[in-house]
Amino acid sequence: MMSREKDFMRIAATSVAGLLISGGALAQDVDQTGWKYVIAPYAWGTSIDGKVTVGDREADVSADFGDVVDFVDTAAALRFEAMKKWGFFGDIWFASLSNEEETPIGNVEVTFDQTIAEAGALYAFQSDLVGYFGARYQQLDGELDIPIGGERSSDKDWTDAIIGARYTPALSHRWQGILRADVGGGDSDLTWLAQAGVGYRFSDSWSGRIAYRYLDTDFDEGNFQWDIAQEGLGLGLAYEF
Fold this sequence. Notes:
By secondary structure, the chain is mainly beta.
């Protein structure tokens, strides 16, 4: 997993730096006649791979995309943006997750509730290139159930500063590309995100979006470790006004 982490980290960091540098070089006036608002409910079908440690118990956790339906018990997500030249955003994703692995000592079960919330400021270098900075908050209520050692549970939360960029080039009259990347740290050793997809505009107000998103987090504090990569397709519907 470490090799893949390093590769994706380079991609995310290089993408953010490249987009922000090109944005500064190509900055142009953006229409500031009025605020634009976006409300976008979405679903992220995330698979998961990595290591979870709770107390003195450690488990490798892996659930492929094909297992997501069984892995995710409940999930909900919503994003909001308000934009002129400058703007702000908020994003919250919640899921109740569970996974069971068969091992030589019996079934090891991992269950946890996860909340990921983001908030920060936006800046439009141009109409299709937006930089952002803010914070990513993650909260976990996790439990490991191991046949020999019994149950171990923990409730942890942490916050990281993030900086990133989003590029949405027009592909046609109705289609647009979606590229996004950010990196950050603070309470965790590292968090970074890379996303790529497309959007389709049904009307002036409504659009649909599909994108593949990869989120990696390496958080380690005392007897709790969350060294996890989450990735999968996201589907969303956006309303602009």
